[in-house]
Amino acid sequence: MLIDTICNGFALIRNIAEVRLIHEWYNKNWKVKFRHVLRGSNKVADCLAKAAIGKLKQVVLFPIPP
What would the pLDDT profile of 3-51 be if each residue is shown by its tens digit? Predict the structure, then answer.
């Protein structure tokens, strides 16, 4: 639903700065493709999300990005 909102321009109606910025980038003369990735399939995003809500119990280093 968020991807549809960005692509269709409905984000311009709302006062969400990040979504509006993504919509502006999407409308540039670039080849842009959005794809939803589940948090469990993206170890870096999962780690960052846990850190943001205080559930990270250890330091995690990724010598090679997953």
Answer: 666 666 665 555 577 777 777 877 888 887 778 877 678 877 777 777 7
Which of the 8 DSSP states describes residue 19? Answer: H
Residue 42 in contact with residue 22, Cβ under 8 Å?
Answer: no
**Could you tell me the sign of the dihedral formed by the alpha carbons of 33, 37, 43, 49, in that order?**
positive
Cα-based distances in Å from 1 to 13, 17, 55, 63: 15, 17, 27, 34
Q: How far is residue 66's CA from residue 51's CA, in Å, rounded to a whole number?
A: 17
pTM for this predicted structure: 0.34
Domain residue ranges of the chain, discontinuous segments joined by +? 1-35, 38-66
Output the CA–CA distances (angstroms, integers) from residue 51 to 5, 39, 57, 61, 62, in the order listed. 27, 13, 8, 13, 15
